[in-house]
Design goal:
- The protein is mainly β.
- It has one domain (about 40-140): Jelly Rolls, CATH 2.60.120.380.
- Helix content is about 15%, strand content about 50%.
- The protein has 3 helices and 9 strands; from the N terminus they run αααβββββββββ.
- It has helices spanning about 1-15, 25-30, 30-35; strands at about 40-50, 55-60, 65-70, 75-85, 90-100, 100-105, 110-120, 125-135, 140.
- Strand 4 and strand 5 form a beta hairpin.
């Protein structure tokens, strides 16, 4: 019986030769962050009072990309991406009460798209905002 188990263990270890190249983890293969550095990196810490917001304008289209990274000290940060076609407000994506956010955004059409970050907590807080710009994506702070 011991011989049979030993033989089975040896057979289990046999197989094709190992690949000669090392592949990245599956999650990294499709990750644009690993592919190339951004053309431009917006990086700023905004001090937001209770209920205050910061808003940036991303101008781009379907061939562009913004890699958004947000950090707050507590889970009291609301954020969204929205547009204003024909004078309306269309929310593309929104999350409430977050502490960290990592979100890749490619616009569905050429235009201005707004990144809104709001302090929804009971005290003032500093929010770290980083946006990596790829393609022809442009950025400016909404004043």
């Amino acid at each position: 019986m011991k011989r049979a188990l030993l033989f089975a263990a040896v057979l289990a270890g046999c197989g094709d030769d190992a690949p000669t190249t090392i592949d990245a983890a599956p999650a990294a293969d499709g990750n644009m962050i690993d592919a190339a550095p951004p053309r431009e990196l917006i990086s700023e810490t905004r001090n937001l009072a209770v209920g205050e917001l910061a808003e940036g304008i991303m101008t781009g289209g379907p061939d562009d990309l913004a890699l958004i990274h947000l950090e707050a000290p507590v889970s009291e940060m609301d954020w969204n991406i929205h547009g204003h076609p024909d004078g309306t407000t269309v929310v593309v994506y929104e999350e409430l009460n977050k502490m960290t956010v990592d979100y890749p955004y490619t616009p569905s059409a050429q235009g201005d798209w707004f990144l809104l970050v709001r302090n929804s907590g009971p005290t003032n807080m500093a929010v770290k905002i980083q946006v990596g710009l790829y393609g022809n994506m442009q950025w400016q702070w909404q004043e």
